[in-house]
Design brief:
Elements: H1 2-7, H2 13-66, H3 73-76, E1 92-96, E2 108-112, E3 117-121, E4 135-143, H4 147-150, E5 160-166
Parallel strand pairs: 1-2
Antiparallel strand pairs: 2-3, 3-4, 4-5
């Protein structure tokens, strides 16, 4: 009887293989979920930055209207929107004239002075829409107000200034 009890203390090779297989399956599921959470975090961070940039643009437009300098609105279209924020994002690289895209790290913002575009380099390809792209591009757009709005008595209706997404990557707007 003592020999039988001594054999029951340890795992059999089969039990050990089953335990390792279960742990491996759980690790694969966990890593897949972790990647999804990282993509979601990147998406939320980009959206939050874009919302802050749009709020900064609104403040710039309102400041120009308040000081009766509406004629300076077209100049906003060429400016770097990051400059309107009280605090630059930690992942902002700066402004470049001719950026070498392959040398820039993913998950970072930069301003392309040649095209007057603010660009975000995605970490793992485009998780924002159906089209595949490594970049999200934004530009300050100046449009003349529609005829119906131009006849309105409110001076804030013309012209319209907006931070819009350009390029082939979709889904963020």
């Amino acid at each position: 009887m003592l020999a039988g009890k001594a054999r029951q203390r340890g795992f059999t090779l089969f039990e050990l293989a089953v335990a390792v297989a279960v742990i491996a399956v759980l690790a694969v599921v966990l890593l897949g979920r972790l990647e999804m959470l990282q993509q979601d975090a990147e998406r939320v961070a980009v959206r939050q930055t874009v919302l802050a940039l749009r709020a900064g643009l609104r403040m710039q437009v309102l400041e120009l209207y308040a000081s009766d300098r509406q004629n300076q609105l077209p100049a906003l279209a060429g400016q770097n929107p990051i400059d309107w924020l009280a605090e630059k994002p930690a992942n902002y690289l700066g402004a470049y004239m001719a950026p070498e895209m392959e040398k820039l790290p993913p998950s970072h913002w930069f301003f392309d002075r040649n095209n007057a575009e603010l660009i975000y380099i995605l970490n793992r390809g485009n998780t924002f829409g159906a089209h595949r792209s490594e970049l999200l591009q934004f530009k300050v757009s100046l449009r003349q107000a529609s005829a119906a709005r131009a006849q309105s008595s409110s001076p804030v209706d013309a012209p319209e200034v907006a931070l819009i997404q350009v390029g082939e990557a979709g889904g963020l707007k």
